[in-house]
């Protein structure tokens, strides 16, 4: 074998480093592609989880849970409510989402004014549901000039 033949000589340190660098760049490229794909999937999921209106225009919007102190007396009482509202059209759905902080504040104020006796019975809970629906429609009407919240549901209501 000839000493000058490049095929028979072991690769130099420089050549090894170049090959390693190329492999690293290739791995980085694949990682970037994978991350871009994940981000695209997440964006698609976020769009899919937005409230979609049914063919008749009705959609449901869920509020994040509300936790308030209520009642009076020496013992602290808590009310936790998980609420969804049914809206009649896309404009109302947009208004509810846009004014969510205002609506949540109105509900917190309403719930914190309740007495233990008022919310302790099924009739009291139904009355609270109706009051909450009226309060939301009133706030939406004050802000937008329209109503459109058809119904309010307690997905979960915990009194402690």
TrEMBL record:
GO cellular component: bacterial-type flagellum basal body; plasma membrane
A Gene Ontology biological process term: bacterial-type flagellum-dependent swarming motility
InterPro entries, per the entry: FliL
Entry keyword annotation includes Isomerase: no
Alphabetized UniProt keyword annotations: Cell inner membrane, Cell membrane, Cell projection, Chemotaxis, Cilium, Flagellar rotation, Flagellum, Membrane, Transmembrane, Transmembrane helix
Pfam families: FliL (PF03748)
Membrane topology: Single-pass membrane protein
Similarity comment: family membership: Belongs to the FliL family.
Function: Controls the rotational direction of flagella during chemotaxis.
Name assigned to this protein: Flagellar protein FliL
């Amino acid at each position: 074998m000839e000493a000058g033949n490049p095929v028979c000589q072991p690769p130099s340190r420089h050549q090894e480093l170049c090959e390693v660098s190329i492999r690293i760049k290739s791995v980085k490229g694949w990682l970037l592609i994978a991350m871009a794909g994940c981000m695209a999937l997440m964006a698609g999921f976020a769009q899919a989880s937005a409230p979609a209106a049914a063919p008749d225009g009705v959609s449901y919007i869920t509020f994040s849970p509300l936790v308030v102190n209520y009642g009076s007396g020496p013992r602290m009482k808590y009310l936790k409510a998980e609420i969804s509202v049914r809206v009649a059209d896309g404009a109302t759905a947009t208004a509810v989402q846009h004014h969510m902080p205002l609506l949540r504040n109105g509900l917190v104020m309403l719930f914190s004014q309740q007495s233990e006796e008022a919310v302790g019975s099924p009739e009291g809970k139904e009355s609270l549901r109706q009051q909450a629906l009226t309060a939301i429609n009133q706030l939406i009407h004050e802000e937008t000039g329209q109503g459109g919240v058809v119904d309010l549901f307690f997905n979960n209501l915990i009194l402690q």
